[in-house]
Amino acid sequence: MTEPHRESSAARPTEDAVEGPAAEPSPDPGHFRHWRRWLVVGALLVAAGLLLFFVWTSFLPRWWAQTISRQTGGTFSGGVGWGLILGFLFTLVPLLIMGVALFRNWKYLGVRIALAVLAILLAVPNLITLSVSVAPGRANEIARTTMDVNAPWFRGATGIGAAIAGAVAIVLWILGYIRRSRGREVRRLRAELDAAD
């Protein structure tokens, strides 16, 4: 009498048998392209920043001091007058543009960025004057001496004009906020009246 056929435990695969190593997924080429693009952008930004730093610290202070010296004619009245005008205009206009960029509801973020860049560019004259006044460096020292001799009181008058412009910008921001708040309140009351009718 034959015994029932038994499968050997060696021949039958067990459920808890260890599987072989799974094949690793191949790297996504799009992922590498994404990082490579950001690396290129980062390298370009670093190079642009270094170039701007070199131009700002070596060329702009002397050029700005010579330009202001020619503009003021080396007189005290010219230094004070041009300092007040430039300090006021190149502070008030950038602050107003920055206020429009921040406080308005823009549909696209690019509009805010473009307005912010424009505001910074318009503030460059006062930023150069500020750099000449407070920043260390041989170029700034030469520019300070040039301005003190050929454009007396220009730097001080620029600071006064910038302070006045800052105060005016704050007042205009507050008035604009009040006007927008009143406009929203009027629209809300009109909507309630229309709903009541």
UniProtKB/TrEMBL annotation:
Protein name (Swiss-Prot/TrEMBL): Permease
TM region(s), chain numbering: 38-59, 79-103, 115-136, 156-178
Region annotation (Disordered) ranges: 1-28
Residue ranges that the Swiss-Prot or TrEMBL entry lists as coiled coil: none
Bias (Basic and acidic residues) ranges: 1-15
Record keywords, A-Z: Membrane, Transmembrane, Transmembrane helix
InterPro entries membership: MFS_trans_sf
